[in-house]
Amino acid sequence: MAATIPASPATLQPCKKNVSGSMLIRSPPRPWRRRLPQHVVIVDASSSSRGPKAATGGRLETSTDAAAVAGEDGDVIRRLQNGPDVRGVALEGENGRAVDLTPLAVEVIAESFGEWLREELQQLESGRDGGEVRVSVGRDPRLSGARLGAALFAGLARAGCSVFDVGLATTPACFMSTKLPRFSYDASIMMTASHLPYTRNGLKFFMKRGGLTSGEVEGVCDRAARKYVARKMGLGGGRGMPPVVMRVDLMSAYAQHLRNIIKERVAHPTHYDTPLKGFKVIVNAGNGCGGFFTWDVLEKLGADTTGSLHLEPDGKFPHHMPNPEDTTAMSLTRDAVLDHGADLGVVFDTDVDRSGVVDATGAAINGDRLIALMSAIVLDEHPGTTVVTDARTSDGLTRFIQARGGHHCLYRVGYRNVIDKGVQLNADGVETHLMMETTGHGALKENNFLDDGAYMVVKIIIEMVRMRLVGLEGSVGTLIMDLEEPAESKLMRMNILGEAKYAKQRGTQAVETFRNHIQEGKLNGWVLDDCGDCSVSQGCLVDTNDDPFDVDAYMYRAKFFDEYKGELGWVHIRQSVHNPNIAINMQSSIPGGCKSMAKDLLDRYLLTSGVNEFVDITEVQKFVK
To answer: How confident is the model over 177-186, as pLDDT tens digits?
Structure first.
């Protein structure tokens, strides 16, 4: 993934406050197709990934000064930015949330991305001036996909890009369309809102070097905001010729890529082409994009997938949200694994950049457990490597990694933050092969630093087969039997009150007030925790490198010490980048510790600081009482 590489030492140094010593460190469903508006021309590219130059519409010709006058309209676009992504409400039906991800919004964002991309490519490739810029576009099965997709095609075409429609796809596959030899596009856009409700949608942006950073997406949205204002004023909106869109089959090539990895790395001595023969694997795709893994990967490698769940894409996600953190998704998968005597269960999120698994005993492996499992596999392959996670992971996970000779670097919450940190460490000479967030986003150095839920499952499946080949008993869950888990964990959310346009500012204020209260001695017993990381201070927020990363949301982690019981645990408080709320994560090694910490926060921070005037603290109050 893209990262700004700081000039910092290659050797990780333990944090002075870090007492633990962790380093700062069946038959496939019918193809999913929807009718596109008639102003989009589709050309079937079949086996060829090259096509005619996309038609360009009229250029925007209006002054930025005139557009800036209507800043309120422009902010509609800026508020769609969620860290390195764009997300918004695409369909009516959410209480208190109006539709803001409209076709016009998508069109100007796509056009702005296309213009930015051309400029970026000209800088990266000196001498490239005015050549073809090729962009692939994929989407999940959300009901708004076809309508917004047409706007996306139109915006890219207005920017002079050649557009390649890969149809229903996964986010990792879209990125791989910039890498796989048959495609090798300059960039890709995936239309998805991941695990969010079906009324939402969004955009994820990729170049060959990886995903765009928050700062880059902010620049694209600023440019789009000016266009949006101009279009609302009736300026620069001539359509010109309808865009020519080439339709290509990406998912078959991506599935073959995954199959080849399994075959080559298992190298089965008796049936090389069907290394999963004799294995039963359940897949729960949640009616998202993950069904392909069942019939195009597992079954073609010999696996029995009888009992798999919700494989047919359905944009309303009628059974449960596709989400490996969802208790319903994991519970249904557990039941299917036990009912069918399966060796493994797999749960994908909507766009398959995250995953979780269930082992043969029915044990759910997600969150810290999944990070521990992947750490065990990676540390066996790369002894002594560093593992980067977000700052919500447990002290027990740190000890698990250290016991296997690895180093644990805790970093800011946010999958792009975690991945970019791994890129940075490798550039600084610190071998870092695994970067994972507790949500299930996981990236490997060997896989282009791409967060790919299917690739993570591929690694686990390879380990499962190897264990059987060498005669080891038990499921993959035996690899994490010694993981110590906290006595208690709690997640609470506090909604930010008032108009949405002020949510980010008020969220920052609330989180900064928490820090200030600790530093000013108003929260006796609380200590800001720098997480034992290598180049971040002030509670996972501010890089001390010469070139710090962009801050997409403010957050702090602090430990609480009781006068009589000693350290009770930690609290992590942060702005959400997806919704107007503040998330509070707690972990304690002592039963009742989370409630004690919550009560102290309520009494001495939330009720006395004035934060409760613009933040809904009801959930905290209910937990305490």
So the answer is: 999 999 999 9
Provide the CATH number for the domain around residue 394: 3.40.120.10
Domain end call among 422, 455, 477: 477
Give which of 94, 101, 56 is closest to 191, Cα–Cα. Answer: 101
Checking 565-572 for CB contacts under 8 A at 24+ apart, the result is 565/590, 565/593, 568/593, 568/596, 568/597, 569/486, 569/488, 569/593, 569/594, 569/597, 570/529, 571/597, 571/601, 572/391, 572/392, 572/413, 572/540
Which one of 436, 458, 477 terminates a domain?
A: 477
> Which contiguous run of DSSP H or E holds residue 210?
strand 210-211
Q: Which residues of 345-377 are buried (b: 16+ CB within 10 A; e: fewer)?
A: bbbbbbbbbbbbbbbbebbbbbbbbbbbbbbbb
Number of domains into which the chain is organized: 3
Q: Which domain holds residue 354?
A: 251-477
User: What parts of the chain have a pLDDT lower than 50?
Assistant: 1-38, 46-69, 532-543
pLDDT tens, position by position, 378-394? 999 999 999 999 888 98
49, part of any domain: no
**Same-domain pairing of 329 and 450:** yes
Q: Are 461 and 415 in contact (CB under 8 A)?
A: no
DSSP 298: I
Strand segments, DSSP code E, in 331-385 are: 344-348, 355-359, 364-365
Query: Are 284 and 380 part of one and the same domain?
Result: yes
Nearest to 379 by CA among 444, 294, 426, 333: 444
CA distance 612 to 616: 6
Phi, psi of 623 (to 5 degrees): -65, -40
